[in-house]
Task: structure prediction
Amino acid sequence: MAAQEPERRQSPARPLVGYRDIGEDVRHSRGAIIRAWIILAALAIFYLGWTLIVFFLEPGLR
Result:
């Protein structure tokens, strides 16, 4: 006869954070926050640049 294995306690599963199962502390790490600000600044600069180019060139197109 086979020996009975002791029952393992099952703990509830942790929800996934993003694509991989990483801890919650990694999600808002210093590097991630800096990267987010850099992306936001790049988008703002692109938007302002494009808007100002169109603003100053548009009167000449009429």
Summary: The mean pLDDT is 78. The first helix runs from residue 24 to 27. The chain is about 60% helix and 0% strand. The radius of gyration is 26 Å.
